[in-house]
Amino acid sequence: MALTKTIVEEFIRTGDMDDAGFLALLQTDAFDELLKKEADRIRRENYGEDVYIRGLIEFTNYCKNNCYYCGIRCGNKKAERYRLSQEEILSCCDEGYRLGFRTFVLQGGEDPYYTDEVLCGIVKEIRGRFPDCAITLSAGERSRESYQALFDAGANRYLLRHETADDVHYGKLHPAEMSLKNRKACLFHLKEIGYQVGSGFMVGSPYQTPEIILKDLRFLQELKPDMIGIGPYLTHQDTPFREFENGSFELTLRLISILRIIFPWALIPATTALGTIRPDGRERGLQAGANVVMPNLSPVGVRELYSLYENKICTGEEAAQCRGCLEQRVRSAGYRIVTHIGNVKR
Ligand code: 5AD
Ligand code: FES
Fold first, then answer.
1. In this structure, which residue's CA is closest to atom 2 in ligand 1?
2. Is 53 in the pocket of ligand 2 (CB under 6 A)?
């Protein structure tokens, strides 16, 4: 199909396009400048210069899953494992609150240590101490009852990327015990319970094709998540995918712009993976339509160990103060960090 400027302008106006249009758009850089300019216009119309910050606490790198792309997969015997105690998590929150964070994101592998009882206990404690904060969980697939119990304990948001919306592709990225069907069921359970939900996928993961990315976009249109996180796939030597190359930075930026145009109100983070593949990746992500950054609040001593992929930024001693670093970066990109809770507008 010959993709014309008129067709792209129609997409920008309506926020949707037919399959052939998307497939063509995903495969050309001819409209990148236009997409970026219009995505930035749309983000400014809805959010002005505001960039939301979310304090990321990586509370465990134990994981019972064995996703082929991920450095903390259980099959990686080289990974040194850690988990944070309730006290350690709470002191991250204390520090975060002092720095102006009003959302805490507790992210971890699927670690059976955190039973409903343990995790609900932590959530309740945070809820009691920080009644004016949002609590976001990112702890993988759990039962509907578990999600409900965590919600009742005080969690408001849940991040669970669908990773890929194509069944066969899902099977190439994950062992047979995992399924796209279950992943989708989890996401719909979370929505039904009343969580604000974040989903997303990696750009350039092994075996991904434009047709598959199109399916990701269509799935997101069906799910209507509040947040959409995407970042380039990044190689990790201690995984079965060690021979695969990193995903494309340019395609990730193009997709951020496309997502902003399809979902004008979405919270779209400029992810750590984007900042890892390019030194100015997060700034460029913001300029392409992203409006969230997630500085690392984990204790510096464990940051290196939460190694989903190689060369992850914010792991060294110099990174004790991601908050300040990002403040600068956001400002240099032409935006400003806001510290209020940032409920999703609709
Ligand atoms: N490269 C980029 N992103 C990755 N993730 C996991 N492993 C990698 C990798 N090698 C992403 C997944 C997961 C999120 C927490 O990190 O999409 O959902
Ligand atoms: Fe962590 Fe810059 S954001 S060091």
1. 233
2. no
